[in-house]
Each structure stands twice: as C-alpha cells, then as structure tokens.
Amino acid sequence: MTLVQLQYIVALDIYRSFVAAADACHVSQPALTTQIKRLESQLGVILFDRSKKPVIPTEIGAKIVEQARFVLQESQKVRDIISEFESEMSGEVRLGIIPTVAPYLLPLFINDFNASYPQVSLSINEDKTESIIQDLRNGDLDAGIIATPVNVNGIKAFPLFYERLYAYVSEGHRLKDQATVCALTINPEELLLLKEGNCFRNQVINICQEKQNAGAYSQFFYQSNSIESLKRIVDSRDALTVIPELATLVLPQEKQGRVKPFSDCSPVREISLVVSRSFLKKRLLENLMSSIQQSIPEKMKHLGEGQLIHTELKL
Length: 315
Hints:
By secondary structure, the chain is of the alpha/beta class. The protein has 10 helices and 10 strands. Strands 3, 4, 5, 6, 7, 8, 9 and 10 form an 8-stranded mixed sheet that branches. A two-stranded antiparallel sheet has the order 1-2. Strand 9, helix 10 and strand 10 form a beta-alpha-beta unit. The protein is elongated. The two termini are 33 Å apart. The relative contact order is 0.15.
C-alpha cells in the first residue's frame, strides 16, 4: 500500500469517474485504474462498485477511503513539521474565507502579508461556512476565516476582530433622515437578505426577530450571496439591508449618512480564524493572524459593550 494509491482512491471518491480522477491526479486513466486494482488485490476487497454510473465506493470501500484521507492528512504534517523549524518563514497556507468578509478584509492585509513573507504561498478560497468547515476536516484547508461562535466539534477558533452591524437604507427611504433604526420595527417586506445558507443571513434574522416573515416580499424577491449586490439593489429602490462594519469603511462619503446604527440593540459579529484541532502550521498561522489584526481598526479588536450575535450554525 502506497500514499499514491491512497491519493488515487480519494480522488476517485471525489470525482466518481476514473477519467476525471486521473485528470485531477495528473496521470493516465489506465495508470490510475491499475494502481487501484492493485490496492484492491493487496487488501483482498473491492473498494468501488464499477457497475454504478457514476462509480461509488462499496460499504467497506467508503470506510477505507475515509481512513485514506486521514493517512494523507497525517503524511502532509511531515512537511509542516519541517517548515515549523525553518528559520525563514516558507510554505503554503490554504485559507478559506466567507463571502461577507472576503472583499472587505483581504485588501487590508494581503499586500503587507505577501511583502513580509515572500516565501509563503497564500492560497485563498471564498466559500460558505459549511464548506470551509468540511474542507478543514478533510485536510483541504489549513485555516478558515468565518463568523463565530459555531457549534462544531473538532474545530478551534481564534477571534480576530468584532464588527458592528448597521442598517443601510436607500436615498429615498422613510428612515433616511433618522439617526437610528429600531430593529424590531423593520418591515420584512423591504428588508433584503442574503441567500439561505449564509451565516450572515441568520444573524440579521436574529437581530430583527422576523423568522416567520424574513422571506416575505410582496412585489420583489432577490437572492444573493453578496452584500455588495444587496447594497446596489438598495441604491436603486426603496429598501434596506444590514451590512457589517468593514463594509461601511469602503462607502463613499456621500453614502455614509445612509448607514444607521440600531437604537434597540448593539449587534456585533465575531470574526475568527478557525483550524482543525490537529493543525500544525502554527508559526505560519500565527503570523497570518498578526498581519490581519494589525490591519484592523483598534476599536474592532475588542467586543466592548456590543451584543454578540450567534450564527445558529451546528455541524
């Protein structure tokens, strides 16, 4: 049994096609097929049911693939251990980040981080929280930046910063001239929310306490994974949405007056760097955390008197 064979069966489990798995592993399809058959012969079991289209692992095959993922993760740690002891910071950090943070946070620190650690390769994938957590568990990511707290086993979270949440109203909205907005009196028919599956959507619903009516739009229904898209829709019609503090920092001066704090609460979301409990690249991740926190306004580094809004995510 070799690590290469384990890589091949994991790839076949992901792609469920010998051709696609071979392409992903950069080998010919016959070479991949031969190695998988050889492994099955060595183990004395059939790992994949070839009669199914797409191919699927057998019952025992699924268990062996799961163990193969673990073995491959552990084998990668040999390189990580070496990197930890090198005097010059080098290596790769595979980072997942949620869409409601990525466009605002990355420009603040990415250039300085690359300049400070030129030997470090930072690979970034924008995705939803559930996918980031799954990729951490599978060893496909080293760390993630998500909204916390989350009720997830096997994951450690290191808070990076806290950002307040604000209402953002259109130019002609009835609340435009008010200094604050009462969350409990927001009309759900004019509140634009992100798609189902976004933690930020859950947090906004928690603020407004409109779980029954959060999706009830009388004449207009719009779904998006992007806060920037919601802002543009608000700019074009009488509506409002909720945006995080970092998003307010990039607004032009003429739109700053449309950002309203809440009068009946001080909602804050916690943004953390999350890793699996077995993570190694400690020096790399510590330096990444330091770069991020140095780029954040000082007032956002502490919760203060804000009300922490939970994500309602359980995995």
